[in-house]
Design a protein that fits this description.
By secondary structure, the protein is of the alpha+beta class. Helix content is about 35%, strand content about 30%. The protein contains five helices and nine strands, in the order ααβββββαββββαα. A hairpin with a 2-residue loop joins strand 8 and strand 9.
Length: about 180
């Protein structure tokens, strides 16, 4: 599925990033990693015991995830360990469609910094799958609520992409935490 296909991408990107950061012109930068999930419209730090986090927008319109843990990534093994640990605590459950279905969207970020100044950020997003009514009709209330939230956030993402594609003056990014 998507999670399996997505898995090598951050590791390959991290190899390239670390190679570039070893060059003389970029040694002033450091790479950091963070990973969180969006579950039932709430945000949880997957590197810090699923600590609930808040999303805030500052006065210039930059979005911040308050309290999100970041660790320095000096080699790819650090990222690999972070991903392995995150997968253990990420929300998942069996559904009729999948024996181990991701019930959240997972966001992995590689951040390039010099001190406190952010020079760049890459986000790798493993989306939860859309839920079809036929796949969840016999499941419990919690699974139906998860499915509804997943579908709502995917619809909001689709509307943002559609607005960007149409060069719209308004991008409806507040429709979901995703």
């Amino acid at each position: 599925g998507k999670t399996f296909t997505m898995a090598p991408m951050p590791l390959l990107a991290a190899q390239d990033v670390l190679k570039v950061l070893s060059l003389k012109d970029f040694r002033h930068l450091k790479a950091y990693v963070s990973v969180f999930e969006i579950y039932l419209s709430m945000v949880f730090d997957l590197m810090n015991n699923r600590k609930k986090l808040l999303i805030r927008e500052d006065s210039v319109g930059t979005i911040h995830i308050v309290g999100l843990e970041q660790i320095e990534m000096t080699n790819v093994n650090i990222l690999s360990q972070v991903l392995e640990n995150a997968e253990k605590v990420r929300s998942s459950a069996p559904t009729h469609a999948n024996a181990n279905s991701s019930r959240s969207h997972q966001v992995l970020q590689i951040i390039l910094k010099e001190g406190d100044n952010v020079f760049g950020k890459m986000s790798f997003i493993d989306l939860a799958g859309s839920e079809w009514g036929a796949d969840i009709k016999d499941t419990n209330r919690q699974t139906r609520m998860e499915g509804a939230e997943i579908n709502k956030s995917l619809l909001a993402l689709k509307e943002c992409i559609r607005a960007l594609d149409r060069d719209s003056n308004h991008i409806p990014f507040r429709g979901s935490k995703l």
